[in-house]
Amino acid sequence: MSTITTGGGNAAPYLQIERLTKLFGNFAALKEVSLTIYQGEFVCFLGPSGCGKTTLLRAIAGLDIQTSGRIEQGGRDISRLPPSERDFGIVFQSYALFPNLSVNDNVGYGLRSRGMKRADIDARVKELLELVGLPDSGAKYPAQLSGGQQQRVALARALATSPGLLLLDEPLSALDARVRVRLRHEIRSVQRRLGLTTIMVTHDQEEALTMADRIVVMNHGVIEQVGAPSEIYRAPATPFVADFVGTMNFLTGSLAGPGIVRFAGLNLTCPTDGLAANRNVRLCIRPEDVAVRNLDATTPNLLPVEIRSLDFLGSFCRAVLKPTAESGDEIVADFSINLMRDLRLEVGKRLSVALPADRLRVFAAA
To answer: Distance between CA 278 and CA 264 in Å, rounded?
Structure first.
């Protein structure tokens, strides 16, 4: 069972998901997932294809009713309600705009179906198009807009009925990189201004890290970890999260004692809580956390290495380092251009690096 209720600060719980399971024949797309989302939060469901993130979003929307489990929104049990009786707006990857309707009519579609007066609809549509930065596009048709503009119209339409919950199903994945980056900030800005509880499904870790208050990392129908972006990145709870979010070194070592892992012939100090002695472990460190400056013989976790390769990546170089003291896994490290110049680093050069104990994560070997 996957149960998560952390986060939220002083906000009240808004969406509560309890032991949600979704079966497609004999395949379990969701396995007793539990999660609490708080009022005004921006939460990203992050994971690879097939992990269950879209299935969970569709269950919340009522588009695919769960096999078992309960969903409560704002204190109301919505577990078996059809989508039309749930309080949400949704933006799909494909925009799903009506090609034969103008932008004004697309945005106002849900309001007309609710029987609002024309003058009230026009005022609301004008307000929303200004909110998403398209005040002069109301008379245009979707085919006359760029992909980014169409996505803004889809967002305005989702917000038209003032829903309590906004659902975003990979809304930026069909856009080019520059537009995607710009719309990230625009969507987040709109969400903050409205204080609207929002859930976004994405497989793009950068998108999740830059937009979310909390990230829900999913894999094989369960939640692996929930936390703030910095927590997910800096303190991954499982090897899957460590590997999926960002770039991570996985080094093969053995537990030599409490707080000590043997790697490349050296005893490294690092947190080893909950791990049994004399067993193989996976030692993890981010490339940017490999220390090079201001080291001396007394520096903890000092490791002699040789630079095997260097890849220039603009503002930094990605180096592959081979421990020289004894056989050990190669280590990927990111060196700034200033560091490269100051230390005159090049392929074949030998130097010492440090693996700071507070930046190391240790997991039991599979």
So the answer is: 16
d(CA 129, CA 149): 11
Which residues are bridge partners to 73 per DSSP?
A: 15, 76
- What tokens were used for 49? 């294809």
What pLDDT is recorded for position 7?
57
| Burial profile 272-297: b = 16 or more Cβ within 10 angstroms, e = fewer | beeeeeeeebbbbbbbebbbbeeeee
Q: Average pLDDT over the chain, rounded to whole?
A: 93
CB-based burial, 110-120: b 16+ in 10 Å, e otherwise: bbeeeebeeee
From start to end of 151-277, where are the E strands? 165-169, 197-202, 214-219, 222-227, 249-257, 260-263, 266-269
Whether this model's pTM surpasses 0.85: yes
| Nearest of 326, 289, 288, 284 to residue 305 by alpha carbon | 326
4 pLDDT exceeds 80? no
Rounded alpha-carbon distances, angstroms, from residue 58 to 54, 91, 221, 346 = 6, 12, 14, 52
Strands 42-46 and 68-73 turn out to be unpaired
One-letter amino acid of 224: E
Backbone angles phi, psi at 174, to 5 degrees: -90, 0
